[in-house]
Amino acid sequence: MIRSSWSLKSILTIGGVAFTACGEGTTDPPPVPPPPPEPVTPAISLDMTLGEVVTLTDPSQVRVFQLNGGGESRDYEVIVQSASSSFGGWTDMQVKIKAQGASANAVPVELPQLFPTLSGFERERVLRASSFSRERTLRASTRRELLRVGARPLRVKRNASASIVSSGSPPQLGQMMDFTIGVDENLNGDCSNPTIISGEVMYVGQNFTIVEDVQFAAELSSSQRLSSADYQKIGDQLDTVVFPTDVAYFGAPADIDSNGTVIALITAEVNRMSEAGSGSIIAGFFWSGDLMGKASCPASNEGEIFYLAGPDPNSTFGAEIDLDFANTLARTTVAHEFFHLLNTQQRITKGGGNLSTDLEHSWLDEGLAHLAEEVAGLASVGLGTRSNFDLSAVLNSDEELDAFNDFHLLNFDRFGRFLQGGCPEKSVGPANTQALGATGGSDPGGVESLKFRGFAYGFVRWLGDQFGPEGSGQVPGSREEDLFRELSSGGPSHLSGVANVLRGIQVVSGSNVEWRELVASYMASLVVDDAAPAGVDPRTQFKTWDLRGLFQQANDNPADLGCPFDRTYPLFPAVVTLTPSLNQTISFTVNSATGRFISMSSSGVAPDVVLEVMNPSGGALLSDARAQVTIIRTG
After folding, report:
1. Which of 40, 213, 255, 327 measures 20 to 30 Å from 573, CA to CA?
2. Dihedral of CA 495/497/500/504: which sign?
3. pTM of whole model > 0.85?
């Protein structure tokens, strides 16, 4: 049991199992009916104080425990979890909740159905969501292709100053440059048959260079293209916000071509990857083939480069993308994709890792990429971490409104979908999310990917709030960047996923924690952040965002944002009223690293209540589920 602390305690187990026998049918007089089942004996009884947080981990205590009434009104949040770290893992469970002395007739819990109204920004939301889903396809095909051809990464020792390819030079404004693109219109990586395009340098900054594909000038009017002022504005943000923030958080690029810059190539070839009228786009991507040597992957540009879609208001090349949307995509997509480049270079180019074994697991990879969007958004308007922002605190100017819409809104959209369990299906909360990915750890794709990314973004934000060092870093408020740089590299052994998280925490904070402790506190924070009594365990709180305040104000906003903003808070617990006659059974499925939430409250004196956690047949759960229960007394 964990009782408002971070040490696992072994609690003495009491109680046993009762067996009954049944007589067989016969022509003799009917047998005497068996006696009623003996009362279940709890393995532990908890008499909790207001604000106390307890996590039960011992299997016998998880199986049967009692919450004492104490002769007063009491409210609880109960979270039944699987602390498993297995990819695609899930466990069918049921919880029987019975007041001591209540009758044996169980009442099932019914949950209402949500029917959200789609909002005005729905098309942009769907398009950007589809981009991340298609990004998943590209990453998988690229990895297969690089392994198929035996691609050899270009290497550089950490802090090395010598070039690893022929010495380059910074591009010049107006210069024409040629590129090879090793990704076809179906998002298949191809080292052997690249598309060759030419582009003009439209912006040269200290850290970023923006190049525009000549196909835009040939096919679109000047009013349909990004202007020189647009490129200057985009470039300034990439140079002064995205680059220093991402580098502080995730490590510096290797500069394998020694040209002193990162190139953002806006090309019609990316537009062609999204068919007109398909309802989906790919906004842009980083292709890891560009970090390979040309000898093993001829399509490689042997340099740090991103590919971005450009404006295409009349669907000349692919899906319709208006000027404003193209401008937004250029700024926000780079923040996300630059993380993927930096993460790959810390592990492979600079770290000497292996492409087949040393890349980050998908859930943590995408969580950190979405965090890169968030911290770039905060930095763009001079805001910091650990300020417990609600919506009103970050919408005080047009610049802050633009930053929230561009960098934060879709992160909270995905996070809200994770909290609610999806849109618009009958919601069961976080439990139905494949939080650590599908079988093999892959991004589950489609609408499931939105919840998957919501879990991951929320987790790494909570992780930075809790374990990032104090002080002021690149983004004011903390030095959480120290933690995230550790996660980006994975350390000397290039650890990934859960092992990487535990190592990173130990390195920067000195804390030796277990995965199940992190799951318990992260799950608890989802229900009691800014809604718990004074003195509650601080590990159950977010520090950068006031989640309830933010969603409440988004729900109140005149803009119709739709699901998951159509509720004052998206988390959807089962609701149980503590009465002397209480006897309810709740059945559900819990995926790895998630939990089912149950809110229990009393209007009068709370009875003693026994909770049994078991499989659908009434037996004990398998040990692989790593079942645990967190209880927070909130009233």
Report:
1. 40
2. positive
3. yes
